[in-house]
Each structure stands twice: as structure tokens, then as C-alpha cells.
Write a structure and sequence with these properties.
The complex is a heterodimer of chains A (415) and B (289). Chain A has 415 residues and is α/β, with parallel strands linked by helices. Chain A has nine helices and 18 strands. Classes of the chains: A alpha/beta (415), B mainly alpha (289).
């Protein structure tokens, strides 16, 4: 290890609840000024709110310290809301930490989104230059890399077409291509691989791997443990704003996944419960892999949902539903007449197959007892379907289903 | 080669100075000119994008940049020049109005578009780091293109009316500078305020109308009673517009105390605009995002 690339000491970020919620209007401030006439100034109002209201503040990050060596590839893992994105935003200087210091040694490139600043009315060529400048490239540098960028994106023919006419796949490819040619010494990547089709995802991953192999430092956020395991040397696991565990990537992922498989649900999160029973975890038990939320084969599958019953459930009705990220209901099922004594129960759902296109999906489970809602949980983590696409993978407009098709032409009648 | 190796050796020595240090900042800050300069191409690209996008979907495109000021001039000439018979300091009214509209349109476009600029570029500022002040800056710089087109038009009009600029024209760059200071300053203030108070954008059409009427665009400042004229200069655009007319057309007297007041206010707006913007920019992302 040749020195330090990133050093964070005690990084913390506090959001006032309400600071994230929209802007205020002058009326609100005036109202505040009338009730507290001697504090009239938005600054003063804000400060006083912070000072006397810890209950009004949440710490998205608390006291994060770590070091990343030059050339190391580090995966940041953790559940939604654990603070991964906030940490990347601080390191990319998009937002300031509330406390702590971070030192970065080298040119930083951050890729928090594909195609930032692309304007639909501008052509592919114009957007490459604009996006390059936004990401911090010099014009001469873009000139030099232009052909490579276009070749990587495979959009040569459409360079002088406004990007509003691009398919979403082309848009993504061009956006990623610019960012991929940034050549930073420290690369910060946030979940960009969650978008686009599988072929594109693979290409992005390969490119990030190239960057990593060429001795660059990479900090990588993803929910796809497969990618993280393949790419990273070391892992940092964040939970509720703290570093829960850090070390060799295998150890960190194992510990993280073990925590997901065991009863993990945070109290009172993700739905309603009246206390009689609570869903606490879910996993795919068949086919069994080391990633309990990833389905990567066609064919039969079984989902297990774990329920902790505190008070006897009589005439229970259990519902289970599968949603895609567009909130479309994919499938649902309900069972009634359940009689569940206190204890831990596992509900097993066996399906002959789940032929939906690859991507992220969420299970939702609910339980009613005597017509009253007992618990309703949007399961975390999401289920990742990573089966090979059977439809045309060139774009992501291939519908909801992932099923093979046999196609024939018959001549019914000759004219 | 040996020398090169040696330097490289030294550079990778374990503890070089960090390239970037991130820590919470407090208090007032002024412009980081070095950092701004490092992003000069971004300023250029964003300004160019504003211009391209503005005219891209319009059927007659950039012709609007010519039509708009001419149409305004025609309307002003008809209503204020002919019907209301406002004086025009001994200059043909169309020329008088146009010389006032030239700086006014830059100012009005700059402040209107600056106000919304940070909200419009919300995705950008929540995804990428760069000095935030570049955003309202690039809006005002983009307005310079229309300004240049209008300036050429004005030159044509002057020729058509048989006007030739006198020696006073050497002062014009000074008035352009004053105009830019004012436009930047007000733009910084309004863009930063609008992040926290969206009321600013709502009040904008009214504010810009009002400002037009307290600026001597359709009438000469000689209509303002002499004892009020220095006070009138508190509106920096009053000094700018009078200055433009004097430098280009030789209309009115050489600006005196009123200009001094306008200049002081313009500089004040510029400096305080930067300071306020820099102070509030730390929370932009948290409020906007």
C-alpha cells in the first residue's frame, strides 16, 4: 500500500428534520418572527432550532472514521438509509459534514448518477462536452478522449441527434461513457449499476474493474453483493450512520448477510404493527445461495418469511405480494384460517418459477387477525432477480416478463 | 530521466499535502477566485448551454434576440413617445428608448433567470460538486449574447438616425462594468434567497416591472426633481441607463453625483451578494435535494 488516498476522521452529518423537507415561505418566517420577535433572521431561527432541539435532528452519519489506501477498492454496504450515499456526498463535496474532517489525496471523480446535466434538447456531442465539463474535465481532455467515449457508448450514429430521441439504454451508455473516461485518482461510485439492462451493467462493472486494476482508488456503493464481492478488497458496513464493521470484503459481506438473514427488522419500521405479531425477516430458501435475497436461476423457488407471534393469533389472514420498482403489483396470494400460537413461525411460499425480467423487486407481507391489521411489512432488503435475460437484452423496454419464446412462421394460405 | 524519477519518488512520499480537505465551514467567506478559475470551462459550457437551449426549439431561433428589443422599442415609442409624449432628452424617441433597453434587458433577463437558476439546476447541484456561484453567474453571462446582438442593432439604428457617438463613448466600458456588477450582485442575492423562500420567484414579475418604472428607461431622469436625483441614484440601474445614453448618444448631462451613488450601490450589491451567497450555499443541497 503506497500511502493514504482517503482519510476520514469523525465525519458526522446532521439533518434537521424539516431541513430536508421543502423550503419555507416568507410567511412561515414572519410567523416565526412574530412569535419570537427578537430572533428575526432566518439564520438565527435555524441556529436556535438546532441548538435547542436535538429531537428535531437526525444524524445521517455519526463519527465515521476510516482510511483507504492508494489503489484500494472499498465497498460500502448497508441498508437503505444507513448513510452510504450521504458519505459519498460528503466525500464528493456536494454537501458539507456537520463535524469531522476528510482528506483526499488526488483528483476525485464522483459518479453518483449517470448523465448528470444532460440536456434533452442538446445533441449527444454537445452533451458529452457539457457533462465532461460538469464532471471536471478540461475541454482539451474531452477532445482527446472523445472518440473513445463515443466508441464505448456505441452511439456513433446518433452523435448529432438531440438526446431526447435516445432510448433510455443509449442515454445511460453515453452518460456512463463520459464518466468512465474521467480518469480520476479516486473514484466514488454510487449504485449506478442499478440502472440499465444487464449487458450495460456488465460493461460498467468491467470498466470499474479496469479502473480498479490500474491502481486507482475506488469507493463503491452497491446493494448487489455479487458486484461488491468481485470488485472490492475491503468493505465498510454502515448501519444507521455508524460503521458497524469494516475489514476484508468477504468477512464484512458475510457478517452483513448474516444480519439480514437473522431477525433484522428494526422496531416500528416499514409498516404498521399492533404488537400481537411482527414480521422480522425474509429470505429465499430455494434455490439456496449465499445471497439470501438474490434469485439467479429460473425454475421453482421458495420464499420464507419469518413471523414472531407475541399474542395468540386466531382466524389469521396472511397476504403476500410482490411489487416491482414502478409499484406495479406482480403477484399476490392470501391464506386465511391461520391459527398461530406465540413463538416464531416461518411462512413458506413455493412458486413454480418467477419469470419476471431481472431487476429489483420487493415483497410485502401482511397479517390480519379477526379482521384487524396486525402487521404490514415492506420487506427489506429488496429481492434482486439476476436471472439471464431471455428477451432481447439490447434495451430495457423488454416488458415485465422474462420468458423464452419459440417463434414460427406458417403459411396458412397462398394467394 | 533520473531527475524525473527522483521527483516522482518524492511526490509519492507517504504524507504529501492532501489535494482536498473537507471540513465544516463557518462564518463569512468571499469568492475563491482560484477555484472559480479552475472551473472556467464549466462556466463557459453552462452559459453556452443556456443560450443554445433557449433558442433551440423556437422556429425562428436566434432571430428572437433581434425581434424582442425591436418590438419593445416599437411599443415604447408608440405608447410613451407618441401617446404619452414623454420627453427624450433631444434624441429621437426610438433611439432614446433603445439605448435604455439595451442595458435594461440584460439586467431584467439576468435577475429573472438567476432567481430560478438554482432550483432549475437542482439535479446538478445535488449530484456534482463545483462552486455553486457558477450557476447564477452563467445565466448572466449567457444574457451577454443577447446584449451583444442588441448593441449591434443599436449601432445600426444610430446610423439610420444619423447619430455618431461622441468622445464620451470611451466611458461605455465603465457603464457595462457597472451594469454587470449590478446584474451579478442582484442575481446572487435573488438566487440564494429563492432557495429558501420560493416567494422570491413569485414576486419576480412584479419586482422586475416595478424596477423598470423606477429606472429611466421610458423617460429621462430629468423628469425626476433635481433634489431627488441623488436619492434616485440608489437604484444602480438609474446610473447605468443614464450612463449608457450619455456615452452613446450624448443625451443628457454627464452623470455626476447620481452616478457616484449608483456605483457605490452596485459595488455594495455585488460584494454583499457574493458574501450572502457563499454563506447560504452550504445548505443549498440540504434544502433543495
Amino acid at each position: 500500500m503506497a500511502g493514504v488516498a482517503v482519510r476520514a476522521e469523525g465525519l458526522s452529518k446532521r439533518y434537521r428534520i424539516g431541513q430536508r423537507v421543502p423550503y419555507k415561505t416568507i410567511r412561515d418566517t414572519l410567523a416565526g418572527a412574530i412569535s419570537a420577535p427578537f430572533r428575526w433572521s432566518p439564520t438565527v431561527l435555524k441556529r436556535s432550532a438546532v441548538r435547542n432541539g436535538d429531537q428535531n435532528a437526525i444524524w445521517a452519519l455519526k463519527d465515521i472514521s476510516f482510511e483507504v489506501g492508494v489503489g484500494e477498492v472499498v465497498g460500502l454496504i448497508g441498508r437503505n438509509g444507513a448513510g452510504k450515499s450521504t458519505l459519498l456526498k460528503i466525500l464528493s463535496r456536494i454537501t458539507e459534514p456537520t463535524e469531522g474532517v476528510a482528506q483526499l489525496y488526488g483528483r476525485v471523480g464522483s459518479l453518483l448518477e449517470v448523465g448528470t446535466g444532460f440536456h434533452p434538447e442538446l445533441t449527444g456531442r454537445e452533451n458529452v462536452y457539457l457533462n465532461g465539463a460538469i464532471l471536471g474535465m478540461k475541454r482539451s481532455e474531452i477532445d482527446r478522449k472523445f472518440d473513445d467515449i463515443v466508441a464505448f457508448a456505441e452511439t456513433e450514429k446518433f452523435l448529432d441527434t438531440p438526446v431526447k430521441h435516445y432510448s433510455s439504454g443509449m442515454f445511460m451508455r453515453l452518460g456512463f461513457a463520459v464518466a468512465a473516461h474521467l480518469d480520476p485518482e479516486i473514484l466514488l461510485v454510487d449504485e449506478v449499476l442499478a440502472v440499465g439492462d444487464v449487458a450495460f451493467q456488465r460493461k460498467c462493472l468491467d470498466k470499474i474493474r479496469d479502473v480498479a486494476r490500474s491502481g486507482r482508488t475506488v469507493l463503491f456503493v452497491s446493494h448487489q453483493m455479487n458486484s461488491i464481492r468481485k470488485l472490492c478488497d475491503r468493505g465498510i458496513w454502515l448501519e444507521s450512520g455508524y460503521v458497524r464493521h469494516s475489514g476484508p470484503i468477504g468477512d464484512v459481506i458475510n457478517a452483513y448477510e448474516a444480519s439480514l438473514a437473522s431477525p433484522v427488522r428494526e422496531r416500528g419500521k416499514g409498516g404498521a404493527t399492533n404488537g400481537a405479531a411482527q414480521f422480522v425477516g425474509w429470505e429465499i430458501v430455494e434455490p439456496h445461495t449465499d445471497q439470501l435475497n438474490v434469485l439467479d436461476t429460473q425454475g421453482p423457488m421458495t420464499v420464507k418469511v419469518i413471523l414472531e407471534v407475541h399474542r395468540h393469533i386466531r382466524h389469521g389472514v396472511h397476504g403476500i405480494a410482490l411489487w416491482n420498482t414502478d409499484d406495479q403489483l406482480i403477484w399476490a396470494w392470501a391464506t386465511d384460517g391461520l391459527d398461530l400460537p406465540p413463538g416464531t413461525h416461518a411462512f413458506l411460499c413455493n412458486l413454480p418459477g418467477l419469470p419476471v425480467k431481472p431487476g429489483a423487486y420487493s415483497w410485502q407481507v401482511s397479517l390480519k387477525s379477526d379482521g384487524q391489521l396486525v402487521d404490514d411489512w415492506h420487506c427489506v432488503p429488496q429481492m434482486i432477480i439476476a436471472t439471464a435475460p431471455l428477451a432481447d437484452p439490447r434495451d430495457n423496454w423488454s416488458g415485465l416478463l422474462n420468458i423464452p419464446c419459440r417463434f414460427d412462421v406458417l403459411e396458412e394460405r397462398r394467394s | 530521466m533520473a531527475v524525473l524519477e527522483a521527483t516522482r519518488e518524492q511526490r509519492s512520499y507517504p504524507e504529501p499535502a492532501p489535494t482536498v480537505v473537507i471540513r465544516p465551514t463557518r462564518g463569512w467567506a468571499f469568492l475563491d477566485v482560484r477555484e472559480l478559475w479552475a472551473h472556467n470551462e464549466l462556466i463557459y459550457f453552462l452559459a453556452a448551454r443556456n443560450i443554445k437551449v433557449r433558442y433551440k426549439q423556437a422556429a425562428i431561433g436566434i432571430v428572437w434576440a433581434v425581434l424582442q428589443p425591436l418590438a419593445m422599442m416599437a411599443v415604447f415609442t408608440l405608447f410613451f413617445g407618441r401617446l404619452a409624449n414623454l420627453p427624450s432628452a433631444g434624441v429621437p424617441y426610438p433611439l432614446f428608448a433603445f439605448a435604455g433597453l439595451l442595458p435594461w434587458q440584460l439586467f431584467s433577463r439576468a435577475i429573472t433567470e438567476s432567481t430560478n437558476s438554482l432550483i432549475m439546476h437542482q439535479r446538478l447541484i445535488t449530484r456534482v460538486y463545483f462552486p455553486r456561484i457558477i450557476i447564477p453567474m452563467s445565466v448572466t453571462l449567457a444574457a451577454l449574447v443577447d446584449f451583444a446582438i442588441s448593441a449591434v442593432l443599436l449601432l445600426g439604428l444610430m446610423l439610420a438616425f444619423g447619430f455618431r457617438p461622441g468622445a464620451a463613448v470611451v466611458w461605455l466600458p465603465l457603464f457595462v462594468l457597472l451594469l454587470l456588477l449590478t446584474a451579478f450582485g442582484v442575481g446572487f442575492w435573488l438566487s440564494a434567497l429563492n432557495v429558501e423562500f420560493r416567494d422570491v420567484a413569485q414576486a419576480m414579475p412584479f419586482l422586475s416591472q416595478l424596477w423598470l418604472f423606477v429606472t429611466p428607461v421610458v423617460y429621462p431622469s430629468s423628469l425626476v426633481p433635481a433634489q431627488w436625483r441623488v436619492l434616485y441614484g440608489l437604484n444602480p440601474m438609474a446610473g447605468v441607463v443614464e450612463g449608457f445614453r450619455w456615452a452613446l448618444l450624448g443625451a443628457g448631462p454627464a452623470p455626476g453625483p447620481m452616478l457616484a451613488v449608483s456605483s457605490a450601490v452596485a459595488v455594495g450589491l455585488f460584494v454583499s451578494g457574493i458574501a450572502w451567497f457563499r454563506r447560504r450555499e452550504r445548505t443549498f443541497v440540504d434544502v433543495v435535494g
